[in-house]
Amino acid sequence: MPYYNHHIQSKLPNVGTTIFTTMSQLAAAHDAINLSQGFPDFDIDPKLISLVNNRITQGPHQYAPMQGAQRLREVISEKVYKLYNRHYHEDDEITITAGATQALYTAIAAFIKENDEVILFTPAYDCYQPAIEICGGKPVFFQLKAPDYGVNWEEVKKLINQKTRMIVINTPHNPTGSILSKNDLLELEKIVSNTDIIVLSDEVYEHLIYEDEEHQSVASYPVLADSAIAVFSFGKTFHVTGWKMGYVLAPENLMQEFRKVHQFNVFSCNHPLQLALADYMSDEDNYLGLSAFYDEKRTMFLEMVAASRFKASPSKGTYFQLLNYSEISSLSDVEMAKKLVIDHKLASIPISVFYHANLDEHFLRFCFAKKEETLKRAGDILIKL
Ligand code: PMP
Ligand code: GLN
User: Which ligand is nearest to the CA of 38?
Assistant: First the structure.
């Protein structure tokens, strides 16, 4: 027993351990193939390791500037201009963060106050809702529907009122693998123009997009970009989820508020890594081939699934594929995910946990950011079920 038992009024009474930790732990405990939490199981580019070695050897080893290393912000500015045709100024409109999670949290903390409403599209990545709630905000859910998970913007409009402060979008979308089109962004642009609504745009999978689609960034839409904070992650782009490095783009007036929180949240991020990332990202060949690289894995995974009783609508982006198991079992998705790990040694993520009302349509999410050999072993299991 503790010496004093605190009476804690939890700020997040309904939050437990994330599904990613839960499933990865279960996978390890049962020696299962882990296609649950999204991370690659292959080696990273030796060029990047060598650049990190150089920077670690030479330094600097002291604090980076609060907004991030100048060189990295310059490289990002050039990259974004080339890809999305908007110039974000490296001094006032780009900030380096400790991964996308911190960026998203900081953005929400900077703008959301008690009783502000934030529109979330569900199924939604798991870090948005707790961040909104901890700030006293209220998530307002818009449910996307299988199999295409498209957005009906006329319906979205009905959710907007005086209290709507923010709309969170995520394209390519985790967990469904859907993407937003040009038309979607134009519709969103109409909704937010001449309002005080801020768009928080989670674009961490910008380079993982298939079937000749192009990533639609808020940065490419002038009115939208003026209202948006866009969030990116080096973890996804360079296969280094463990480095926890990312960045944010926003117009100066929004970035000023973002930095007010950022400077007391982390102050600044890993300095030598920022410089190594700048060296590496200055060569566009280090990220432009990513879709083709992952498309091979996606195709291989889908071919194996086609020989099974699972049903799939091909993922259009991200490194996730949803599979429907309705023909195999009537178990809930959480139970099915557990059974797959314990009885069949394959870990996935149940989709119901990404819905506020835990809608269960018998979908599991599988991460295909894996070596061919890992995917083959997973495929052998799926085919037998
Ligand atoms: N947003 C989405 C949609 C993600 O899938 C992830 C992580 N997989 C993040 C944000 C967090 O990125 P980071 O690891 O850079 O914090
Ligand atoms: N974003 C990763 C995923 O979807 C997991 C990150 C985490 O564990 N928080 O699966």
Answer: 2
